[in-house]
Amino acid sequence: MTGTGTERYGERMFSHGHDAELDRLHGLAGALDDGSFRRLARLPIREDWRCLDIGAGLGTVTRWLARRCPRGRVVAMDRDIRLLSVLDDRTGWEAVESDVTREDFPAGGFDLIHARWLFAHLPSRDAVLERVVRWLAPGGWLVIEDLARFPLESSPHPLYRKVSLAICDAVINRIGTDPAWARTFPAPLRPLGLTDLGSETSLPAVGPTPMGRFWRRSGEQLAADLTGQLGITEAELAEFGELVESPDFHDLCLATVAAWGRRPE
Ligand SMILES: C[S@@+](CC[C@H](N)C(=O)[O-])C[C@H]1O[C@@H](n2cnc3c(N)ncnc32)[C@H](O)[C@@H]1O
């Protein structure tokens, strides 16, 4: 299904002012942080690196970078920085409230740029990515991690598959997210002149897990879309909510596909 995508992320859907958004993003961070930290730890990070975390959310990756780069500069950028301050550790990094589709940092200013679950949601994601790469210093690394829908398409559980794909369709309709883009990684990085390209996929599961919490909260926020034009009944949505946090249920959720590359010296 292709959506018009006239709304922007956070304007109404997934607003950081929504009561349940903190809980939803805690679920996401809990599901994905270990994989992100493992991937980032493989880079030759130095204490004086200048790092940028775009679409930082709660800033869990920002804080990890700040601990690794105590003599550098770590910037968390988000179009809404309200939830960046809810975690205790506020040292060694700074917040910039800005829209990455409009912000322009000076060329060559960062040794590491990270973005997780951001680019797939952006209109003109390839053009924004091309601009972001210019912010890398010679030898600097780009690490992007994004969502991909393919594990949901093959779910053997009919209700879980039906509601999960409808959640994806609701997000596509609202903001034009591309849930298949990351499946092509690292292809979008090839035209950008980066070297040392790599890619890796993580497959978090729902059940009594942080991802289950995230996915249930996502469905709840989109309830009006799901039970309206997307044909999910209220009973199906309620059953889905119980199922995805049930200790008796296990299935794969959205994948996280990561890609990285280095700007030549
Ligand atoms: C799905 S959340 C991911 C948060 C965090 N990266 C994580 O993985 O835990 C997407 C984040 O990107 C931010 N965002 C969305 N569009 C943005 C834009 N155009 N510019 C900057 N941040 C944006 C949202 O406000 C939100 O915090």
From TrEMBL:
Gene Ontology MF annotations: S-adenosylmethionine-dependent methyltransferase activity
Keyword Transferase carried by entry: yes
Keywords: Methyltransferase, Transferase
Entry's Gene Ontology BP terms: methylation
Occurrences of domain Methyltransferase type (ranges): 52-144
Protein name: Methyltransferase domain-containing protein
Source organism (scientific name): Kibdelosporangium aridum
Source taxonomy: Bacteria, Bacillati, Actinomycetota, Actinomycetes, Pseudonocardiales
